[in-house]
Amino acid sequence: MTSRYPAIAADITKLFASRDTHAVEVAVLQPADPFLDMAGEDLRRRIFLTESETG
After folding, report:
1. Percent of the chain at pLDDT exceeding 90
2. Which value, in Å, is the radius of gyration of the alpha carbons in the chain?
């Protein structure tokens, strides 16, 4: 099993901490509806979406 973070992650974390910053967790997967609403019906007809068992 590989680490979630690269080897340099600890050094980067220390650098940001020394500058009084705070780490945040950003969701990678976003809901598709806002993007599809902006992209329009043409794109909506050509894509394939999947959902998990919980929606």
Report:
1. 22
2. 19
